[in-house]
Write a structure and sequence with these properties.
By secondary structure, the protein is an alpha+beta fold. It has 16 helices and 31 strands. 30% of the residues lie in helices and 24% in strands. Helix 6 (348-363) runs antiparallel to helix 8, helix 13 (558-570) packs antiparallel against helix 14 and helix 13 (558-570) runs parallel beside helix 16 (621-635).
Length: 686
């Protein structure tokens, strides 16, 4: 098995190392120190007297700091080790490492402490296929500093490492020659700054220790404030409160400030999506509306600022289209990949309107709705003008960039995700079913915004007519009467792609399902072909290409399941929704720690344990957000005017639940619930 990898993270700055804290190139994983899609450290290895070090233990203090407890040499040396090392690592906008060496012998001792350092300045998207770069190395012994720099035309990145202790600096790192009395200790702080061309440099010669303490204090205060602002959960079920707070902490870790904007928005997640991803950010905001509503206005404003304004085949850009991805790496800067501003997603645009309306329902922030009137109307116009590629009234996608654009531009965006029951891929442009649900929901919500806030009742009436027509047309063309479920997609000729998939659950969430067909959809979702016991599979068993370890062809996504459970409750299938919620909470509590992006779709009765996939990111914003959405769905939280409606459907075995101080236009409200086996007495607030 691969050795455990350890990470610290703050926004889109993160460091991934081995269990000893060392960083060495790994062709299969993004090991290193990264910020804004560039690796600023690719080699960071500590040695004592020429020996590598080994781990005794580790203290993961918060998402942004950890401590490694180490000894030099092989495992056989542990019992009689006369020296031990503590590495205290933290990240903020910079990277800090405090190294402490302790002499446990009864005699004085001298040690040579060596930190090897290097950077390849790799773009994160090319970690598996590295290119050669000419890195400039500058040694500054007078200030205990080593500077690594890479330049390519206007693109420049720089890593500066500085020590607070006297040191010998060379092009490969830093060497400390120390003397320790019996029972003595020695410490140095290593400060690594990361500079992007155009940003002002920092004077790191003075105050490094006080700066580190100030940053750590600020980060801890920020996390404490974030947790305090969120509702307080009191749960009878063991471990649920800890799981809830862990998800909140993961969401705190995954906030960053894009270079073009000053408010923090959620990134996709570690390690491959540490950037603004429109779909992930919008879904995360929808999931967390009752818990961390401050994510939504920043996300909406950022996406509106970056909204498409022209036809650009290279970046799949169209007027009104909402961003799919924003990257800052070298390949994006030079157009080697179209990711600097990439718009290849057909779902982000209608979901933008859904989020704007949902945020107003919770917050009462009419000013933001008026402020974003033009971007929202552009998004609604996109649905009909550019989303409808064949003129049949359905949102479809086909990449403009044939060289590097995304093949599938829905949430199941892997190249082989959209297939029929026999594994055949439909022609382009493709109309997946959930896109029609999102478009329907966006038109209905847009109509409300137009009537209540934009002063345009005629436009509202038009959107409502279009939504009703879309629902009728959809239920005619996508329904498979012989199978009692909706097709995964339509090909460009209107022929259905007959796979049974989790996408049908999104249809319930959007409200596009005809009432007389909702029960059949619900039963498929919790039937043995789709429901694994942990959650709903992306692709049902019994179909030719079903694969339990296939991300979109059989895996189980918490984010997917959160929307499905909410959809089931929307149609009053409370028992089915509770079953899905229970499975995902069991998954999270069994695995402990951050909720993974996806697990394998093996039947729970077979594996008895959620099987993680090596490609799955962890933490992920919409996976952590999924637990919050499922909690809100379990409690049946729904804003109704200036009031919060609570309509619980608690899974068996959960006992009593209290969610206190839920923020919204009503100020703060409390929700109480219990399952049928719970005591009628409310638990005492902790």
């Amino acid at each position: 098995m691969r050795q455990e990898l350890v990470h610290v993270i703050a926004g889109n700055v993160f460091a991934i190392s081995d269990a000893e804290g060392d960083i060495e190139l790994d062709p299969q994983a993004p090991v290193g120190l990264f910020a804004f899609d560039t690796r600023f450290l690719s080699h960071w290895v500590l040695k004592i007297d020429g020996e590598r070090i080994n781990a005794l233990s580790r203290d993961d203090m918060t998402y942004f700091e950890t401590r490694f407890f180490l000894v030099p040499g092989a495992a056989s040396h542990y019992v009689d080790a006369d020296v031990s090392i503590i590495r205290h690592r933290s990240v903020h906008d910079c990277f800090h490492e405090k190294i402490t060496v302790l002499n446990h012998a009864s005699q004085p001792a001298e040690f040579t402490v060596r930190m090897e350092m290097a950077s390849d300045f790799a773009d994160i998207v090319e970690v598996g296929q590295l290119r050669e770069r000419e890195v400039q190395v500058a040694v500054d012994p007078s200030s205990n500093r080593l500077v690594l720099r890479y330049e390519r035309e206007r693109f420049a990145r720089e890593t500066t490492v500085q020590s607070t202790a006297p040191v010998e600096v060379d092009e490969g790192g830093m060497t400390f020659r120390i003397h320790l009395d019996p029972g003595g200790s020695w410490t140095t702080d290593l400060h690594v700054s990361m500079t992007i061309q155009g940003e002002a440099g920092q004077d790191l010669r003075a105050g490094l220790q006080s700066h580190q303490r100030a940053v750590r204090g600020t980060m801890n205060e920020d996390l404490a404030d974030w947790l305090d602002r969120a509702p307080h959960l009191v749960a009878e079920r063991g471990g649920l409160e800890e799981t809830y707070r862990g998800s909140l902490a993961d969401l705190a870790a995954l906030r960053y400030e894009p270079l073009a904007y000053s408010e923090r928005v959620p990134v996709g997640g570690l390690p491959w999506a540490m950037a603004l991803c429109g779909r992930d950010s919008i879904i995360t905001c929808l999931q967390t509306m009752a818990f961390t509503p401050e994510l939504a206005p920043a996300t909406l404003r950022t996406l509106a600022l970056l909204q498409g304004g022209q036809l650009d085949d290279e970046h799949d850009e169209e007027p009104g289209k909402i961003l799919a991805q924003l990257r800052y790496g070298e390949s994006a800067a030079f157009g080697e990949r179209p990711t600097a501003l990439y718009y290849g997603a057909a779902d982000t645009t209608p979901l933008f309107v859904v989020l704007l309306d949902e945020y107003e329902r919770w917050s009462g922030d009419a000013d933001l709705v008026r402020e974003l009137r033009h971007p929202a109307r552009m998004a609604l116009d996109w649905i009909d003008e550019y989303g409808d590629l064949t003129g049949d009234g359905y949102v479809r996608y086909q990449r403009r960039n044939e060289r590097g654009g995304a093949i599938n531009q829905c949430w199941k965006d892997s190249a082989d995700a959209i297939v029929d029951a026999h594994g055949r891929q439909p022609a382009f442009p493709r109309a997946t079913c959930e896109l029609q649900g999102y478009a329907y929901d966006a038109k209905r919500r847009g109509a409300r915004l137009a009537r209540e806030f934009w002063g345009d009742p005629a436009y509202a009436d038009r959107l409502e007519r279009e939504a009703a027509a879309l629902k009728d047309r959809f239920n005619r063309d996508f329904w498979l009467p012989q199978r009692d479920y909706y097709a995964l997609a339509l090909d460009p000729y209107g022929e259905p792609v007959d796979a049974l998939s989790s996408n049908i659950g999104h249809l319930l969430w959007s409200g596009i399902v005809a009432d007389d067909r909702a029960e059949a959809v619900a039963e498929h979702l919790v039937g043995s072909r789709l429901f694994s016991g942990w959650g709903v599979r992306t692709f049902a068993t019994g179909q030719r290409v079903y694969n339990p370890v296939g991300s979109h062809l059989g895996g189980v996504w918490p984010s997917d399941n959160a929307l499905i459970a909410a959809g089931l409750r929307h149609y009053r299938f409370d028992v089915q929704a509770a079953r899905i919620a229970a499975g995902i909470f069991d998954l999270a509590q069994t695995l402990r720690g951050a909720v993974p992006e996806v697990i394998a779709g093996y039947d729970r009765s077979v594996t008895k344990y959620p099987v993680q996939l090596p490609s799955a990111g962890r933490p992920q914003s919409w996976s952590s957000g999924a637990l919050l959405m499922l909690l809100g769905t379990t409690l049946g939280l729904r804003p109704t005017g200036d009031n919060l409606l609570v309509n619980p459907a608690v899974p068996g075995g959960f006992g009593r639940l209290e969610l206190l101080d839920i923020p919204g236009r009503w100020g703060h409200a409390d929700a109480y619930a219990r399952d049928r086996t719970a005591s009628p007495h409310r638990p005492r607030v902790k």
